[in-house]
Model the fold of this input.
Amino acid sequence: MILVTGMSGYIGSHTALALLNAGREIIGFDNFYNSTAEAVEAVKKLSGKDFPFYTADLRDPDSMEKIFKENNIDAVIHFAGLKAVGESVAKPLLYYENNISGTVNLLKLMEKYGVKRLVFSSSATVYGEPKTVPIKEDFPNSTTNPYGSTKLYIEGILKDVCVSDKDFSVALLRYFNPIGAHESGLIGENPNGIPNNLMPRICQTAKGIMKELTVFGDDYPTPDGTGVRDYIHVCDLADGHLAALNKIEKESGVHIYNLGTGKGYSVYDLIRTFASVNNVDVPYKVCPRRAGDVPVVYADPTKAKEELGWEAKRELEDMCKSSWDFVKDK
Ligand code: NAD
Ligand code: WQD
Done:
């Protein structure tokens, strides 16, 4: 069975569904810090399958040990973590405790129960400000905020675990910018509180919750002056986890992959595409650059294609449409 941590979250719920649809058995857990049980019910409904789900916390080993005791776990896909960059600057210790200590707690239980396979949610943030694009997996790493540091430290911890135990296998998946939602409209990105990322903010603006979107800078050295990112559909991302799981079931050691499309789109591309496919207005105003933002980030996803047989298939139109379908009536 596959243990999915942070299962009721945005990427966890889509991956859980993909795993169930591929005939895998799963167990989920979450502490509902940034999600609700609705996503768990939706995954059960969409897959037509039941699975054990626990309310547990990475920081509370006893709550997690119950899961390891009661189930026969073969591998872990580890999504649980805090992810808001700004909050991590304001509350670094919360991030180090939750993400790093929490992961160490999980790894200690995996060691105790002989579980030696882990897929980890890393991030393109570990590339810092890349000197060139597209970004390859062997580019140098650096971070600009505590959130990014937690990802880099955890990558290091997992590499050390693999050195200490030659049977251990890990996939470090460096996601670019996940957006979009499942076509059913039943699961998607539903952050608690005010969102930080572009797509949820576009959605809130289209709904009228935000009066206008703030475009953080139109003076970047990019074709239209706004920041360029590699937006990837969350369902493509979910499929990437299945491919990575298949890989680490066959091969031990550390396997690092960029999960992106390899294409860069600007803030204006997103606003324009979103407004046109959904036939809604997205009023915006141009503001100064946001501190810490990088002009252009996009992946070279060749390694994942060659070694995992995985590549992103869905287009930007589909990402914009499904994001809106999920939130428009909420
Ligand atoms: P999310 O917030 O929707 O999901 C994370 C889940 O983990 C939430 O349901 C939250 O309640 C849970 N969680 C947090 N701390 C926990 C704890 N101590 N114990 C148990 N559960 C806990 O975020 P997401 O977008 O689905 O991200 C999943 C993973 O992918 C995270 O590790 C994130 O850092 C990483 N990631 C996300 C993005 C992105 O842009 N969404 C990009 C790169 C990497
Ligand atoms: C995208 C573009 C902004 C909001 C962050 C994290 C990264 C990863 C993904 C987890 C940029 C512009 C944004 C707005 C705007 N998360 N923007 N107005 O910054 O690429 O990455 O999320 O690992 O670690 O740093 O994503 O969606 O915040 O921004 O103009 O209101 O949209 O300047 O060019 P980012 P984002």
About this structure: The two ends are 33 Å apart (CA to CA). Residues 6, 8-12, 30-35, 57-59, 79-83, 98, 102, 121, 123, 175, 177-178 surround nicotinamide-adenine-dinucleotide (ligand 1) (CB under 6 Å). The longest strand covers residues 117-123. Residues 203 and 327 are 7 Å apart (CA to CA).
